[in-house]
């Protein structure tokens, strides 16, 4: 009986050591998960700042688009005035040629401005898409962290119960 008890005690001591090692590993995992959670909260702050940056950028781009549209309108008015002036004043053909050149230059400027407007609009759309993707990724990471935390809590509870049982 004593030999059997000694063997049983040795087995229990060995099992207790294994449980202690598992508990330490679980604590290490818990610390690592805490660190990951901290990193995730930092990235969440970064995502929020990126989101506010995107909104500021959108506002800036919108005001720039409005300015470009006003410039565009002003240039179109100038072109129209030049056309009217060239039609009404049939001065020398030299002046007409100069006005046409100026008209062409203004038309090129308008085209460039319209291209800039299109690029700004596309940039805004790209930034909004990026912002939405970042928000979606944040939500997914939070769900994963909650799942990991629940698993960790469950493991700790199981190990404590097993330890108490032993």
Q: In words, what does this structure look like?
A:
This protein is an all-alpha fold. The chain has one domain. Helix content is 96%, strand content 0%. It contains 2 helices and no strands. The protein has helices spanning 2-88, 93-165. The longest helix is centred in the N-terminal third of the chain and has 87 residues, at 2-88. The protein is rod-shaped, with a radius of gyration of 36 Å. The model has no long low-confidence stretch (mean pLDDT 84). It comes from Pluvianellus socialis. One of its GO terms (cellular component) is centrosome.
What's a concise summary of this model?
With 166 residues, the protein is mainly alpha-helical.
Query: Roughly how many Å is the radius of gyration?
Result: 36 Å
Count of structural domains: 1
Indicate the proportion of strand residues: under 5%
What spatial form do the alpha-carbon principal axes imply?
Answer: rod-shaped
The helix content, as a percent range, equals over 70%
Q: How is the main sheet built? A: none
Order of helices and strands: HH
Low-confidence stretches: none
**Helical segment tally?**
2
Mean pLDDT, all residues: 84
- The termini sit apart by 20 Å
Tell how many strands the DSSP assignment holds.
Answer: 0
Structural class: mainly alpha
